[in-house]
Amino acid sequence: MRLIFALPGIHRYDRGAEIALLAVAAELARGGEDVTVAGSGPIAGDRGYDYVQVPSVRRERFEKFPTFPPFRSETAWEDATFALNLLRKIDLKQYDASVTCSFPFTHWALRRFGRTGPASIFVTQNGDWPAFSNKSEYRTFSCEGLVCTNPDYLTRNADRWNCRLIPNGVDVARFKPGKAERSRLGLPTNGPVVLMVSALIDSKRVIDGIRAVAKLADASLVVAGDGPLRQQVTRLAEQLLPGRFKLVSLPPEDMPDLYRSADVFLHLSLLESFGNVFLEAWASGLPIVAHDSARLRWILGDRHFLCDTTDPRTLYTALKAALSARDAGAPEGIERFSWESVSAQYHEFLLETLAGR
Predict the structure, then answer these.
(1) What gap in Å lies between CA 273 and CA 296, rounded to an integer?
(2) Same domain, yes or no, for 118 and 63?
């Protein structure tokens, strides 16, 4: 198969969507498929696939731009600049299938030739709104294959699209229990550390995380991420967590050590499409405090400390319990989320989709 994976943030950011698509692309390439990856970041070593750098304007430049359909956020503005250059740099007709999770502009670019171009595989990394909504630009969505990253998305879209339930994964060789590296990473060395790995946007509720950890007398909060709320987050942390807060931005190779240097993982988004960070924390042996939902229990099972995180008292109790546990033990069951296993499911779905076409 000749495959193209395209996403503006590839090789530039290391968020869940970028990590997921790159991991699948690399595994498929190692398995012998002809894989091209298009992203806006620089070339980053030999990962088995062919890489094409497609220029785009960084989303941070658009944080104060107006928002309106289809430019609903700074990421949509970035997506538009990427999609335009993608059409200029790549001959899409040479591929059998395209894979993206970016809508609308990158999706539109990859669908330019309709059914005479590559089969469109859309991954619901950022939600399934394009697949089921009939409002505004979402009415233009179409695909030959829809990868649903959780059972809710599969139930909602199975009657309309060719769907397959495929979870995200984790590199179990990198993310595993081990020695803490607090001093090397510049983290607090005294007392327990609560870790959040999250974009600084409203839906991730980092502000609520600061308020929750502030009630724990001896705990520090470390947040790995960036986003439009960076100044608001920093100001509140200075008020509520003086000397007990650290905002970090680390290269990918340091992320396993960051997890291993924490005592508890905290994530407060009410409903994630999937949430790679849960797997990374679980694989690293951390107890997890997060918002209780059927979707998250599908990933984690009944382990960890899931609760109603919108209730401050309940959240405080869960954090205290998790800190008492600290060592979550061996991450039993994580193997089913290895990228090797996940990519095999992608491979099967791609072959079936192309055969059906």
Answers:
(1) 10
(2) yes
